[in-house]
Design a protein that fits this description.
The protein has 299 residues and is an alpha+beta fold. It contains three helices and 14 strands. The protein has three domains: 51-61 and 219-296, Elongation Factor Tu (Ef-tu), domain 3, CATH 2.40.30.170; 63-96 and 187-217, Beta Barrel (OB fold (Dihydrolipoamide Acetyltransferase, E2P)), CATH 2.40.50.100; 97-184. It has helices spanning 2-23, 97-139, 145-184, and strands at 51-59, 63-67, 72-77, 84-85, 90-94, 187-189, 194-199, 206-207, 212-217, 223-229, 241-245, 253-261, 271-279, 290-296. Helix 2 (97-139) packs antiparallel against helix 3. The longest helix is centred in the middle third of the chain and has 43 residues, at 97-139.
């Protein structure tokens, strides 16, 4: 009985050893293959866009609201939006009856004062002649010293009257000139050659000094104003050519020349302001349009 138990124990031990060696692989696992570096491949440098694209509006040098220079009532409107005008062309007319009447009165006063001056000048010549005659008579002992002094002082007094009337004439002339300017203010004229973009008034409307009447703008030469990061300071130069495009002009490309560069950097935005003028034909471009400007951005 004891031998049977010993034999069973030995068989059980053999079975466990066989099971252990049958389920466990004693060989080491194969390591994953490492990538072999390619010694001939050069490192790829970081990409750098050679252009910086800025945006800015198209502007012109002259673009103003023409305002009334005096109070009045609009008598006639002679310009409409879209009308091309020349420098000094009449755009509208205010009621000018009152300033015209004042000017006529001032001109009459000027003429009257001028005639009065001629009368005083003629009288002064007569008194000068009397004073000269009195001098000769006094030298000949024909009249007394008092009589000669009387004639001399009267002639001198008349010369001062001539000067007084001369100043009155100057005053009348300047008053006339002032009223001429007031009358001219009733005529609203184009300050420069361009196009009427807007009309703010209508006939019969009462306007006050400073009220807008028309918006007149040039159409050329076109300019573009834009800003660049501060790193462009010293890199962009006056006269440099830039490429300009507009989303509203399709694939058309235009050339602009740098006119002005801000000498300082805006501390609030860290940018510099640049002004460039478009060269050559600028078809389909209008003031106020937004454009894109390609600026070389070399590292």
């Amino acid at each position: 009985m004891t031998n049977l138990k010993n034999a069973a124990t030995i068989l059980l031990a053999l079975a466990l050893v066989s099971l252990q060696f049958g389920c466990t692989d004693s060989r080491p696992a194969a390591a994953a293959p490492r990538p072999v570096p390619n010694a001939s491949a050069a490192p790829v440098p970081p990409t750098h866009d050679p252009f910086f694209v800025a945006s800015g509006p198209l502007i012109v040098e002259h673009q103003v609201d023409v305002a009334a220079e005096r109070n009045g009532v609009v008598a006639t409107v002679l310009a409409e939006p879209g009308l091309s005008v020349q420098t000094g062309q009449l755009l509208a007319q205010l009621d000018d009856r009152q300033p015209a009447a004042d000017l006529d009165a001032a001109r009459a006063r000027t003429r009257s004062t001028a005639a009065d001056l001629k009368n005083w000048e003629a009288e002064a010549k007569v008194l000068d002649a009397d004073a000269e005659r009195a001098r000769k008579m006094w030298e000949a002992q024909l009249i007394t010293q008092e009589q000669y002094d009387h004639a001399r002082f009267k002639a001198e007094s008349d010369q001062w009257d001539v000067k007084r009337v001369q100043e009155l004439l100057v005053n009348a002339q300047q008053t006339e000139r002032s009223l001429e300017l007031e009358l001219e203010k009733t005529r609203i004229r184009a300050p420069f050659a361009g196009i009427v973009a807007r009309r703010y008034i209508r006939a019969g409307q009462e306007v006050s000094r400073g009220d807008r009447m028309f918006w007149v703008t040039e159409t050329s030469p076109l300019r573009v104003k834009f800003t660049l990061p501060e790193r462009f300071a010293g890199k962009i130069q006056r006269g440099q050519s830039l490429e300009v495009t507009s989303p509203d002009s399709g694939d058309d490309k235009f050339t602009a020349s740098v006119l002005e560069i801000s000498p300082v950097i805006d501390p609030s935005s860290g940018t510099i302001e640049v002004l460039a003028q478009l060269l050559g034909p600028t078809k389909n471009l209008r003031p106020g349009m937004t454009t894109n400007i390609r600026v070389p951005d070399l590292p």
